[in-house]
Every structure is written in C-alpha cells, then in structure tokens.
C-alpha cells in the first residue's frame, strides 16, 4: 500500500520528468548504481531507484539487473509477476539496442528513394516498426490439427483427444442450449479447438479423464436422452478460434465463489466456477493469477489450483470448479480480500500459466518433496500426477512439510488419509516453533535435516530420485543451494517459485 500511495502522490518516479524517451544500451549502462538504477524488461526501461526498498526480494536481488536488459533474469526468477502494473509510474521509455537497420550511414548521406521505396516515405513510424518486426520474425511451421475420435454407448459418448504432450490445459464450454460444445486445448504456447453442434443435448458438466501413461484425454458426455447418435454432431469452424493461435494470458475471466471450505484458523479453500457452463484444467506445476483493484491500483497474486481431495477421485461436479487454497496474511492486501469473500462473490482469474513440464520426472522412481507453508499447493498436483497418471512408474513419494506450529499444518487430515490409503506416500512434519507436546521433527531447513530426509546414495550414480522444492523465497533458495552441494544437478530437482 505504501508503494501504491507513493505512485499516486504525483511525485516523478521516472527521474526524467515523465517524458518517454528512447534509451540505448550505452545510456542504460550509465544508470547502474543503487541511487541511480535503471533496467530494461521486455523492451521497456524503468527507473527502479524509488522501488529499491519496496522490492520483496531485497535490494541486492534487484541490483543484479540494473544497468542492463534484465529480461532473461526476470523471466528466470518471477516471470509471472505483472511488472508493468507495478512499475508503470517508473517508465522511462523504450529500450533501443542498436541494429544494422538503425545505424546511420558513415558518410552522412541518406538513402535514396530508389533504395527505400515510396512506401517508406508514406508509412508511419508504427507501421515501419511493425514491418521490421514481421520481416525479422522466422517462419513458423504449420500447426497440426487437433486429432480426436468419437465413441458412444446408449447413455454416454466419449470424445478422445490426441494431445501433443501429457500436460495440456483444456477448456470445455457448453452453450445454454446444451448442444453447442467447444473444446480448446492449449499446449506449447498455442491452442487448438474443436467446436460442435451436438446431435442431441448432454448433461452439464461432462467428465474429463487423463488417460494414464499417455497424452490422450477422454471427455465423457452424458446424454440427456439415451439412444444412438449417427454422428457426434455438426463441426463448426469459429473464426476467432483458429487452429494454432497463440495462447493469450492477458485476459481474466469472471468466476463466482460457489463454496468455501475451512482448512485451519487462517486458511480456507475457495471453490470457483465460471459464470457460464465452462471449466478448464490446470497442468501440473502451473498457476493462475487473481487480481483486484485497490485505490485505483491493480494488485495480483499467483495461486496454484488444487483438487478438492487428495484421496477421493473427483466427480464431474468437482471438475467443474477451480479450487484455490487461500492463506490470509495480516499485511497481504489481496489475500485478506480473498479471505473475506462470500458465496456468489465475483473474482477475476486468469487462465493457467507456467512452463513446468512433467517430463522432467516421469522416469524417476522416487520423489522427495520439500514444502514450507503454502508452498505445499504445487505439491498436490505433483502427488496426484505421480499416483494417478504415471501409474506403475513411481514407487515412493515422500513429503517433508515445514510449518511454524502444529495448528499451521495445512490439510493434515487429508495427508494422513492419503498415507493410510497409499503405501507409497509418506509425510514428515517439521515445526520451527513446536510446543512441548510435539513429538515430531523440529527446526528449520538445514543440511543435516535435508540429508536425513533423502537417500544416502549419490544421485549422479543412481539417478532414480527427483526432488521438488517450494516455499518462501529464502527457503527455496537455501534448499536448492544445499541440493547442489550434495551433488544434485539442476536435472535432479525443481524449485517452484513460492
């Protein structure tokens, strides 16, 4: 809130009077001190000097990027952050690295009309930039069409989708007539769609099943009236959903709170549903963004959707909801707002985002998960994937869960139920502020504790294990560093950003 108030105070945070300007690499490099700090992110240059003491990761982390094009560094650390909204009052201008097109002729002469053509004189600056961008963009191979098969029985029919990967994001929408069916499959930064006017009406919601050990997904449709259909229906080509269109994460969808479940004294689960007959899946390790506007400033936060239960299989109704575990922080503007939502309240949620791919651990036999606080939520998807999708490939799933006190443990009953049902799964709780009655592990993450929870063998000699880490930034960085010291390469573990 202090940063929002400073941005709305009228103070010039750009340092250049608010006049947008083009910035060369040489100019950018001169602003490389803590008291004079500029950096570039995705083509924009920001004066982050006034933001230094507000940066959640600390001044030192921000200093790593000042004076340079920090796009790569930013994408590695927290690509999901809406930097444009946070730093819009600090915008200096556009970053203009020199190219052969922009270097003036050494002899001082200008190109003749025969060299540049008449269009160059008539085109606007924006048109020229767009033309140059299109000219330098490499040609993309044609996208493959989404393949599918249709099977039916008397009461149900199934659309089997042949996806390119095992982690697609799938959105299913049914029109008010219960016949207009749209399926959008998003993977590898592109989406493909199927749109049918079904031969007859179906019951909402359908059931979506990921076929184990494959990239096939089955959508089961329950018929309103049992009987044989001659075909699935009439295919319809929608102009706004062409095959292979890029996936856009800029739009938010309005969702309503359908149900609320208490987890503990400061955490609850919100069950969200679309306003229309629609639902979507979230790939393992991916997240959604929730945002709201406070005092004219947009604030957003990422949440990893979870399932309704880690033990019970989801019903059709469960799949039609998005479940977010919300922990209320005293100083958390958005989390406090979410924690006070009621049934039927509207929340704006983005589509799923993320780059994590399950292929990094599908051939590993043993998974070791280290989570702190709400860093537990990405682990839910990993555990479900290992248990239900890569069936027969994973023999051990070990979760070490760090919390402050016993009452802070999230979903403890659910974890105990899972350990009783699945012999492959074990959970160990570690408390940093345990009372005298606690008989479990105590302390914080360190080398000794980490070694006690991992197999003693050298991961380079016996690469059966894979490690996942998620929690506050300090916890994640410390654990990742300890794993490196213990001989784990970056191919042997993955750190989710908390």
Automatic annotation (TrEMBL):
One of its GO terms (molecular function) is metal ion binding. InterPro entries: Cbr1-like_FAD-bd_dom (IPR008333), Cyt_B5-like_heme/steroid-bd (IPR001199), Cyt_B5-like_heme/steroid_sf (IPR036400), Cyt_B5_heme-BS (IPR018506), Cytochrome_b5/Flavoprotein_Rdt (IPR051872), FAD-bd_FR_type (IPR017927), Flavoprot_Pyr_Nucl_cyt_Rdtase (IPR001709), FNR_nucleotide-bd (IPR039261). GO terms for biological process: superoxide metabolic process. Keywords: FAD, Flavoprotein, Heme, Iron, Membrane, Metal-binding, Oxidoreductase, Transmembrane, Transmembrane helix. The keyword Heme applies. The chain crosses the membrane at residues 367-386. Its cofactor is FAD. It holds the Pfam family NAD_binding_1. One of its GO terms (cellular component) is endoplasmic reticulum. Residues 20-96 form the Cytochrome b5 heme-binding domain. Residues 250-359 form the FAD-binding FR-type domain. Belongs to the cytochrome b5 family. Belongs to the flavoprotein pyridine nucleotide cytochrome reductase family. This is Cytochrome b5 reductase 4 isoform X2. It comes from Frankliniella occidentalis.
